Every structure is written in structure tokens, then in C-alpha cells.
Amino acid sequence: MDDQTIREGLYVTHFIQHRITSGYIQILDGAQSLPAFWAHPQIGSTFPGLVLIHGERGLNNQIRMRVRRFAELGYYVIAPELLTALSNADTLEARRAALRQSADSAILAALEVLRTHNRVNGKLGVVGWSVGGEIAFRMARSHNLISKQR
């Protein structure tokens, strides 16, 4: 790539993909151990942390793909499985309602894992899909994760 291309902004360095490591971990929510999917860049720098909140369909392949994609972009990402305790909710609407009521403590546990990790630079966020997006917005507002800078 030549210097003119870089000067004209056709090559944006913050969209470089990092090699990542991903897999399942256990996080502690009080005395309870919760499964979570985790991904992060392999290089030794510090990065922002992100909790990804799945929707009513759980921690499926699509959510794991999104976790990996955020890690490729330079985030330490945790997606806790929020439906393990809700296996008796058989309809999508029942799962949505159960997630709205019971996800907070698991998300706070995931945020704490990121906050205390030595490779997370102190910047934390939450993002979600479907009902997970609704929960992410509520969590961001109630726990001061929304930046006041413009």
C-alpha cells in the first residue's frame, strides 16, 4: 500500500483484524458458576472490555461469531450464557421475560471479570441483540457505562 492511499484514508488502521483466542470459561456470579464464551486478541497489548448479551435464543453460533468478531477488532469480550437457569421457559416470550428479570447479576459478574483483568484497559461496555439489546441499554444506564462526552 502506498503513502497516498494511507493519506487519503483508504486504509483505516483501527479496522485491522487481530488474531484471537476464544473458548468457554466459567465466571462466578456469587456462589454460582456460569458458563460464558470468551474471546480476545492474542497480542500482548491492553484493550477495552465488552460484555455481549445474547437474546432469547441463548448463546448460539451466531452470538459466538459476534464475540469473535469484536475480539478481532480489538476487544476482550465475554458473553455469559444467561439461559442455563431458565431452561424451563419453553416459549420465546417466556424466555424474554425471564431474561429481563434475571440477567443483571450475571452481566455484573462478567463486567467484574473484565474490570479486574490485567489486559483490559479500564474501558468497559455492554452490547446486545434482541432482548439482549434492551438489557444492555438498561445496564449501561443504571451502571454509568454511557459516556457523557460528546
Describe it for me?
α2 (61-72) links the parallel β3 and β4. The protein has a single domain, classed as 3-Layer(aba) Sandwich (Rossmann fold), CATH 3.40.50. Strands 1-2-4-3-5 form a 5-stranded mixed sheet. It is of the alpha/beta class and 150 residues long. The chain is globular and about 40 Å long. Helices cover 35% and strands 27% of the residues. It has helices at 3-7, 61-72, 92-102, 104-116, 131-142, and strands at residues 20-29, 32-41, 47-53, 76-80, 120-128. It has 5 helices and 5 strands. The two termini are 34 Å apart.
Features of this protein?
150 residues, alpha/beta, Rossmann fold, five-stranded mixed sheet, 35% helix
List the helices and strands and how they pair.
Blueprint: H1 3-7, E1 20-29, E2 32-41, E3 47-53, H2 61-72, E4 76-80, H3 92-102, H4 104-116, E5 120-128, H5 131-142
Parallel strand pairs: 3-4, 3-5
Antiparallel strand pairs: 1-2, 2-4
